[in-house]
Amino acid sequence: MHELSIAGTILETVEAEAARRPAMRVVKVGVRIGELSGVNAEALQFGFEAMVKGTHLDPLALEIEQVPLRYRCSVCAHLFSAQDDIPRCPLCASPEILLVGGDDLHLAYLEVEDR
Amino acid sequence: MNRLPFEQKVLGENDRLASELRTRFQAHGTLCVNLISAPGSGKTFLLERTLERLPPAMRAAVLTGDIETQNDANRLRRYGFPVRQITTGGTCHLDARMIERALHLRNPVSPAVTPAKFSVAPAEGAPWSEEWELLLIENVGNLVCPSSYDLGEDAKIVLMSVTEGEDKPLKYPSIFYKSALLLLTKVDLLPHLQFDLALARENARRANPAIEIIELSARTGAGMEAWMGWLQDRLRAVRGNTEGRVAQAAAHGT
Questions:
Q1: What is the reported pTM?
Q2: Do B66 and B72 meet the contact criterion of CB atoms below 8 Å apart?
Q3: Over residues B43-56, mean pLDDT
Q4: Closest CA–CA distance from residue A79 to any residue of chain B (Å)
Q5: Alpha carbon of A57: minimum distance to chain B alpha carbons (Å)
Q6: Which of A46, A83, B80, B172 gets the highest tally of CB atoms within 10 A of its CB?
Q7: Peptide bond before A59: cis, by omega within 30 degrees of 0?
Q8: Which pLDDT tens digit goes with each residue over B177-213?
Q9: In this predicted complex, what is the ipTM?
Q10: What is the number of alpha carbons within 13 Å of residue A28 lying toward its C-beta?
Q11: Considering only CB atoms, which chain A residues are within 8 Å of B145?
């Protein structure tokens, strides 16, 4: 359960950005989390909503985009995403695959409106 | 409504601190390893058996993280090397700021990031300096959260005991993906278990084809030589890099 710390870090960053843009109000923050990031989206959403309540950023929405694991086939170099525990290359069916991504934990965008 | 693209790592601040730590470790020729596992996989016991095997003159130190208690530090202090206990006061992982604070590189700690109850107990028994050859970090027992936080270490090491499921690497791919070495612990218990070692290794390689794997029992000592050898190789590499940099700087007259 480090999602509360993560939510706190996101809030701090948004706070700093909001302070730099006094004429605007931040209404939404978008984050991208990979399946390998070790962060649970539901817990993050819950923690974020609890933390933002009562602060001057309230109401501030959090939109989470989840990024699946990405693999590259060692045989045919095909890049693909998979949800199965034991994935194979969808093109050549080889089990010789490498994990190449899905560890994102990124702030992607802010949505702002004029005050 | 206006959408502003804002590409930045959520844990960018942690990563920045971690990279500062990494630079310091490199400058001092310190090998820093970050041991991560579920609670009860044998991190503390392995550290005890490791400290016992280190040359007494070695400049080695331990930072051990737990949510509460000084128990681990008390166990680890018997071996003559300085040990600091980091109690996180509820936080389920160590972050770079806690390491920095524990090493006393900078004060004060920002209260926004580090929980109020966070504390570091002073090292006892041996003097504390910064110039370690080997810094062993024992993370909080947790297979999920510690994987997100870079501590400036040279390598993450994941422990998995044979009393756990062979499918752990599939259930918790993140930490296996990010670790350089998997230590399969408690192998002395294998005769009593239905644990498929080959399957566990295969699953680990599925999460991370490059992961090195050592099977060991800290209790019987089986595999300890391979583990100490792994540390020796890494220590040599770190030392070589630091000396190389010093030589290079001297050659350039800087």
A1: 0.82
A2: yes
A3: 96
A4: 16
A5: 16
A6: B172
A7: yes
A8: 899 999 999 999 999 999 999 999 999 998 888 899 9
A9: 0.72
A10: 13
A11: 1-2, 38
